[in-house]
Design a protein that fits this description.
Distance between the termini: 26 Å
Mean pLDDT: 96
Low-confidence stretches: none
Strand order of the largest sheet: 7-6-5-4-3-2-1-8
Family: Belongs to the pyridoxal phosphate-binding protein YggS/PROSC family.
Cofactor: pyridoxal 5'-phosphate
CATH class: Alpha Beta
Radius of gyration: 17 Å
Oligomer: single chain
Number of strands: 8
Bound molecules: pyridoxal-5'-phosphate
Strand content: 15-25%
Keywords: Pyridoxal phosphate
Largest sheet: 8 strands, parallel
GO molecular function, one term: pyridoxal phosphate binding
Helix content: 40-55%
Protein name: Pyridoxal phosphate homeostasis protein
CATH superfamily: Alanine racemase
Amino acid sequence: MTDTTRREEIAAGLARVEADIAEACRAAGRRREELTLVAVSKTYPASDVRLLAELGVADVGENRDQEASAKAHECADLGLTWHFIGQLQTNKARSVVSYADVVHSVDRLRLVSALGREAVRAGREVTCLVQVALDGDPGRGGALPEEVPALADAVAGTGGLRLGGVMAVAPLGGDPARAFARLREISEAVRKTHPGADVISAGMSGDMTEAIANGATHLRVGTALLGRRKPLVR
Ligand SMILES: *Cc1c(COP(=O)(O)O)cnc(C)c1O
């Protein structure tokens, strides 16, 4: 495919996503400026990230360190904000901190200390979101709701880290509106102790509308922008 065709394809995807966001904002009585669109570029090449940037996208999300690291370095000239959204092993903390501005998947104390140590070492400040497992099954990443307050306190009290707020993925097969309503309650509880932690990262291609209706501030959208991903071979 030529670059022009790909550019048009991505521009069309972006226009559709923006139209859906506008519609959901109208329905929820919210303003577009309250939302950050994070374009999830996993499995797609750095050239797509470049096209997204040319089309005005400022935030990019990736879920695997090796792939993210290569792309972030290749696109370092674009001044994008990089979001790490995948499950994260502590031994990858040093690498992730070298390019990520925001880590959405902080779900255990050992990860908090590893990220803090590496952020201080690198002289960086990394915004962290506490990921919540809304179905009570931490298998896909995320802390149990009852673990969130202690994790939030730990992030807020760790040098090199800034507590941004909370993140969740809607449970498979569940009602996303209900899940995101629960996430909003958890966010409100966190903000009682940490008033600045106002980020709610919720909503993907299939459930943006429900996320916007329930107070999301960050949408993580891949498929609707860039197309369906090929199954991952690991
Ligand atoms: C891949 C991914 C997304 C984007 O999902 P789409 O359905 O392609 O929009 C969002 N959040 C996380 C955590 C992901 O891994």
